[in-house]
């Protein structure tokens, strides 16, 4: 890696037919100066999909679209991982042929609304608990998606096990009330995740597989009183496997459930010696301090990377930053280039003013 900056995975809703397009190619290529580019969350299956104009990678056309992105990022000298995503209960039944949604248990998100295929808003639906056979099949969906990633040339993959999506729904006691081998104990609640890791390791070397955790976040109706103990357990179980990295959302800028003490990078470092990516609310100086302390090894930036495609150069040269992007530019379908690929590079702006 040429630096310790990471483009955080950001769902931007700029892929109308789920197949990455030329606008997506430009967006990621603009940010290829990051040490590592992590793509937006990308649907691994039709059942796992559920966000309007998000990308997917469960068929050959989608993989071909992603190959164009990968080739361009590589040509620009970048490294790129794809984030593998199953939305679980945060999806809406209108996206699926089965006309239902699935989760660890039949527990709805609660407050908030899901967005249907046609863009309308609806109260979150009660999901159907996956059967053991369906869990095993979903693990294979992750493996098949990883194979398409490899075929498209991705340097590796990140398992999206955060933000209240399917893997996180298995992790947390607030959403997992199963009484079989996938529920109850820490070992059982982590089983689905580690089965995914094992399956993907048949496609990619294990040191090309990263994963993301959000023990502090409330997004998607999440937050459990045993999160501190559970997520340090997961990190400890991942220790020694040789995984690419553990990506921790330890900041509170994405919401804090407040049901247990905050899990920080320094807590994870006590049980996990592999590379740690820190994320949420970082500034350059805070990131420098955390890296120098040894609490984390890499710093992921989201909003700053949206509005500053040349963030690495701006940090390195002490150039001023563009203002943060604002909602609804972040992730609103139909916005196209606006708020996506139209943020200026610093040097280009300087030449204009001369």
How would you describe this protein?
The chain has 354 residues and is α/β, with parallel strands linked by helices. It has a single domain (5-353), classed as TIM Barrel, CATH 3.20.20. The protein has 11 helices and 12 strands. The chain has an 8-stranded parallel β-barrel with strand order 1-2-3-8-9-10-11-12, surrounded by 4 helices.
Q: Quick recap of the structure?
A:
By secondary structure, the chain is an alpha/beta fold. Helices cover about 30% and strands about 15% of the residues.
User: What top-tier CATH class fits best?
Assistant: Alpha Beta
Uncertain ranges: none
* Percent range for β-strand residues: 5-15%
Determine the N-to-C terminus distance: 34 Å
CATH architecture, by name, is Alpha-Beta Barrel
Helix content: 25-40%
Shape: globular
Mean pLDDT value: 95
The major sheet is characterized as: 8 strands, parallel, barrel
N-to-C SSE series?
EHEHEEEEEHEHHEHEHEHEHHH
| Number of beta-strand segments | 12
Summarize the SSE layout with pairings.
Layout (H helix, E strand, L loop, with lengths): L4 E3 L14 H9 L5 E8 L16 H16 L4 E6 L16 E2 L9 E3 L5 E3 L4 E2 L2 H21 L3 E5 L5 H6 L14 H15 L8 E5 L13 H12 L6 E5 L15 H5 L6 E4 L4 H10 L4 E4 L1 H5 L3 H7 L28 H8 L1
Parallel strand pairs: 1-2, 1-12, 2-3, 3-8, 4-7, 8-9, 9-10, 10-11, 11-12
Antiparallel strand pairs: 5-6
